[in-house]
Every structure is written in C-alpha cells, then in structure tokens.
Amino acid sequence: MSDNLGFALEGAWKVLFAGLVLGAGLPLLFALGIRSLAWGAGGEAEVHESGVTGPKPQPIGTVLGWVLFAIVLLGIALGITFIVASGFGKALSFEHIYPTIIDKH
Amino acid sequence: MTESTVILALVVITALGFDFTNGFHDTANAMATSIATNALRPKVAVALSGLLNLIGAFLSVEVALTVTNAVVKIQNSDGTPKESLTAGGGEALLIIVLAGLVGGIVWNLLTWLLGLPSSSSHALFGGLIGASIAGLGWSGVNWNGNGSKLDGVVGKVILPAIMSPVIAGVIAAVGTWLIYKVVTGVAQRFTDNGFRWGQIGSASLVSLAHGTNDAQKTMGVITLALIATGDWTDTKNIPFWVKVSCALAIALGTYLGGWRIIRTLGKGLVEIAPPQGMAAESASAAVILASSHLGFALSTTHVATGSILGSGVGKPGAQVRWRVAGRMISAWLITLPAAAIVGAVMWFIGDLIGGLGGAIAIFLLLVAAAVYMYLRSRREPVGHHNVNDEWEGAPDAEKVPAGAGSAS
C-alpha cells in the first residue's frame, strides 16, 4: 500500500506539472490570441461605451493573434504525434529540448 | 463445434458488447462540453467523436494482452493464461472472463440509465475482480502488486481514481481563471466564437486519446480468451479481425451517443460557456496524454468530470451544482464493488449450471437485463433533440454553432 502511494504521488506531480504547462498554458496562449485578434479588429470586437465607435483596428494585433494560434497548433500537433508514436511502439523524447521520436524501451 | 468454441463465441460477443457500451458511455467525456455550448450540433459532435475513436483504436497497435494483470491473476506475466485455468479447453478461464464482462456491461447500462458518468474501466475491472474472487478466491486478485511499481487494485485503480479528477480539476480551474483574466474587455460574442473552435480542437484530441486507450482493453480480453482455447498462440500480436471489430464496436457506441450522460456532464454540473469548455477539454487531453506517457493508469471519465468541475470553480461567479457532483462521486465509489458483485453472482450461476449451459444462462441473463434497461430508458428518452434543454426550468435559447456564419 505505502509503496503504491509513493509511486502514485511521484507520478501525480509529473502529471500535474505537464498538465499545467500543456492543459492550462496552451489555452492561455489561445486566449491571448483571441485578445490580440480583437485588438486587431477593433470596433465591435472590444467592449466600449455605447453610442461611440469602438477602438481603432490595430493590424499588428491580427498578426500577433495568428502567431499565437500557430504556436497552439504546434502544441496540438505534438499531442497527436505523441498518440500516434506511442501506438507504433515509439516514444517522444525531449532530451534535445525539441521533441524527437525514438524507440520505446 | 466443441463446447468451448461456443463459449468462446459468447465471450467474444459479450466483449464486443462491452466495448460498445464503453463507447456510448464515454462520448460525453469528449463531447459534452462542445454540445452544451453549441460549438457543434449534437449529431455532428457524436459523429466526429466516433470517427476519431475509430482512428484512435487502429493507432493502438501496442499489445494490450496483459490488461487483466493489473487487477486479477488469471494470466502469466507474458500474457498467456494460467495453465490451471486452461485445462479442459479453457472453460474455467472463459467463464471468469464472461461473468466479469457481464458485470461490467450491466453496471455500465444501469449508470447510463441514471445518466451518471461512471468509469467503464472500473466497471470492467470490477466485474473481473468479482468473477475472480468467486472463481479463485481472494488470492485470485492482485490487490497491491509486488511493491516494485504502481500495480494492483490499489495502485492501478483506486489511487488514480482519487488523484486524477483532482489534478484535472486544478488544471482546468487554473486554465479557466487565466482565460477569463485575459479576455476581459473583449466582446463576448467575439470570444465565444473563437473559443468554440478551440473547444472542437481540444475535444477531438480527447476522442482520439480515448480510442487508443479504451479499445485496447477489449482487444486484450478477446485475445486472452482466444489463447485460452488454443485458437491463437502469438502473445506479441492481436488478430487483425479482433482489432477491426473492437474498433468498430467502440466507434459505433460512441456514435450512438450516451445522451443521458452527455446531458448530465454538459448541462447538469456547470453551465458551461465556450471558454470554460475549452479549458476543460484541454485539461482533460493534457492529463490523459501525460498520464499514459508516464504509465499512470486512469479513467477518462474521472478526468473529464474533474475538468468540468474545475472549469466551474475557475470562472468567477459560475454556479457549480455540487449535489449533482456528489451523486456522481458516489456512483464512482460503488462502481467497482457493484460490478464485482454482479460478476461474482454471474460466475456462481454459471458454475452451478456448469459448462455450456452455464455460459448460455449468464449470457441470456445479460440480454434480459439489457433489454429491460433499454425499455426503461424509453419512458423518458433523452436524445440529440433534448440533450441541451435547461437543467431546471425554461427551454434553451437558440445559439449558432461555430463556423455557421456567426462572426458578425
């Protein structure tokens, strides 16, 4: 029992950490992307006083928004690669910082 | 055709039946939030989830033959069945597996009828544990593993069930809170439309991961039965037809959609807005993937429920129906013992009658229970037409799905 509890707690911390980075970090980037797009679109996309025209569009916001979405998409692509790789007996390795596909031991 | 061949056929049919219930029981895990926020039309959501489960099941080529080893002792560590159980055509093992599967299915159907998202893996493991206790005694169960790694009923079932919903809930709460901080000042119509897309993406990832995780279990059980009767000998591979039929069973089940459970998860727990839905599904996907990477077994149902609760906690001013959550958690607690009792009773009935007659008897009992519960469900049908009705009171206003021209 105590052995199992130790193993479980050890795993739980790793899952919590990875989960916070990917499961809360990527949505955060996505939200920042939406925010930038709204800034880029201006006008009705942003909350403003009624009766007056909304803030001016900022084209740089649109660009920034799509860059952020691209990063999120890369994160998702990594997730899918992971599922597919583990299905074929491979694993993702992060030892070179950037992910590489290696054989599972 | 010998007696054991007929029993084997019953085991295969029952296992595929379990896989099917596993599918519709878990549609909600991936799609409840997208359906509740109208990111996807209900029918489209279940079709997408079914397709991704089908693909996922084929991606899981890793051999899951030792799946039962986590909880019961009916297999050797290389996946072959224990010799003592395969004497006389493998009937002893087949009856244990059959009784266990029946326990899992009956519990899955009952919780579906009540609209409770309980874990399908707990139901399967519970059934197998009960049937093993009945057939082999207390020592037939792997309670605690051997202390060298996370194993046994405690390590593979109970501890993950306590921890995974909490972890998922924390991640979803943090995600939701951050998202709402970031998008203050952006018009709601603008954010909702964007987050619906994020939701669809993250929910799809959960569906794919579900297919790879859950279809494997049934593939392993069927292959174990085939080895027990001597119809298959390779412990490194799973017969192709087993893979195809399991993938189809789980995909069809998912497509059918467990509307009752989708309703509870999508509307009952928390009133979900698109940003919460995206935070919840992202948290689920991240936890499921990170855990399977670390070999930390868990139930998608527990993770998804924890995430949705977390998204309610993280949104300032959101209402969480803790009464519904409490009902769910009590269902989780009794899933394993309840499925175990059904599995054990089934084994005793099968053993009392003996041989082929016993196997047919439990199979017929399963069919009777399934038909009864299906008929009960027709009294108050829940389907794609009313899945999103208000939990209490007035009917829901019409909302437009993402990508259906609501950008104006």
UniProtKB/TrEMBL annotation, chain A:
Residue stretches spanning the membrane: 12-34, 63-85
Upper classification of the organism: Bacteria, Bacillati, Actinomycetota, Actinomycetes, Micromonosporales
Entry annotated with the keyword Transmembrane: yes
Protein name, per record: Uncharacterized protein
UniProt entry keywords in alphabetical sequence: Membrane, Transmembrane, Transmembrane helix
Organism in which the protein naturally occurs: Paractinoplanes tereljensis
From TrEMBL, chain B:
Region (Disordered): 385-408
Signal peptide boundaries: none
Subcellular compartments: Membrane
GO BP annotations, alphabetical order: phosphate ion transmembrane transport
GO molecular function: phosphate transmembrane transporter activity
Pfam annotation, one family: PHO4
Transmembrane residue ranges: 51-72, 92-110, 122-145, 157-180, 240-259, 329-349, 355-375
Cellular component aspect of the GO annotation: membrane
InterPro entries assigned to the protein according to its UniProt record, in alphabetical order: Phos_transporter
Alphabetic keyword roster: Membrane, Phosphate transport, Transmembrane, Transmembrane helix, Transport
Topology in the lipid bilayer: Multi-pass membrane protein
Family the UniProt entry places it in: Belongs to the inorganic phosphate transporter (PiT) (TC 2.A.20) family.
Name this polypeptide is given: Phosphate transporter
